[in-house]
Task: structure prediction
Amino acid sequence: MTTTPGLDLTDLPTGGGTVLVTGDGGLIGSYVARAYAELGWTVHGVSRRDLPEAIWQHHSVDLLDPEAAVAGLAALKDVTHLVFAAYIEKPTDPELIEVNDALLRNTLDALAAAGAPLRHVTLYQGGKAYGHHLGFFNTPAKETDPRLIAPHFYYTQEDLLRRAAAERGFAFTALRPEAVTGYAIGNPMNLLLVIGVYAAISKELGLPMRFPGTRGSYDVLYQTTDAELLARATIWAGSSDNAADQIFNVTNGDQFRWAGLWPRFAEHFGMDYAPSQQMHLVEAMPALAHVWQRLVERHGLVPTPFEKLVGWGVGDFLFHHEADNISSTVKIRQAGFADALDTESRMLDLFDQLVEQKVLPPLRAH
Result:
């Protein structure tokens, strides 16, 4: 993880305890675990798969199994902070509630069984708390906005955590990012890779950089959250009294329209720009896996299977959403976390980093 100007770690608490990061192989969890490790904390990470590249102490544990969770976390008797970034995708809300509540419950119970002196838990939510997945919602969304009537695992997890915090004496913070951008090996739920791989294949085919969504989506206001900025907010939340038992929106702090960014992507990648053309990436892109494989072989790219490289559905959802998506970040700034990034320049930098890391082929214009 590279440090961005204005996002250095020097003003954050160093060596302050022992943190457990669940979902440490995911986009959010991997950035948080690395940031804590770089600050000198003792870091334990948990997920179901092996992570040989981890610079922290990784444990392969099935948190869906209560007994396995207790056994797998039994040695973590010194954990003071829990960062809960574990998530399992399911097709319906009842299924999402069942499995994701179980992940959180089993983790908390296992740490309690180990006798860990837990002081703080960070939980992640997102724009779906306001109804982003349903279409239009009131903007700028504020943390005081009422819940939706429809059940959602964000709400049930939060209620579970509030009860546990009150009973067991720890504090918690719920952070609400939007469209987290960064890179984690084997994690396809990533807007950055949707755009980068789509651009690379288009360029290889001699095609222009064309927005693949609706005209309405092209013109609405949107926002993202950089994974490094979110990691900093997580560490701040775990150490600030102002963050105790609070919910905060966390974004880069600016807004943009795809209509403004897409021509800049084309310029940066040395591609022609063309007007938007609605399509469904989940239908169009799998048929072009052979083009990507050609790029992998030619440029010696990280050999991630194409079906695990990009979640095209992420792009389809965001590029067909025709309502403004804006969250207020006033509350977190007034509480003491004021980091901000220019999304346009940051995304261009991240694309260049992915090229350097051999995740994407050379794209930049020369």
DSSP finds 14 helices and 13 strands in the chain. The radius of gyration is 20 Å. The CA atoms of residues 89 and 313 lie 13 Å apart. Residues 93-114 form the longest helix (22 residues).
